Amino acid sequence: MPELLLDGRALKVAEGTSVAAALALGSDGCTRTSVSGQRRAPLCGMGICQECRVTIDGRRRLACQTLCRDGMQVETHP
User: Fold this and answer.
1) Predicted model pTM
2) Domains of the chain by range and CATH?
3) In the 8-state DSSP scheme, what is residue 56?
4) Which regions span the lipid bilayer (predicted)?
């Protein structure tokens, strides 16, 4: 079972879990705040909408297209 850090909090997830699914399990699911101040969350689940953008190990990634791995550090931008 991979354990990742989600905004500084440890979270264990099942093997094969996407970062977007981990966000839904370990937080309110929001990934960022829009320029108008609205909280955003994954929408399409296939990388088209870009609503699931997070920082993973220092690089901007799509949470719905990234599988969790042990030691991964995920930062949302609410």
Assistant:
1) 0.89
2) 3-75 (3.10.20.30)
3) E
4) none
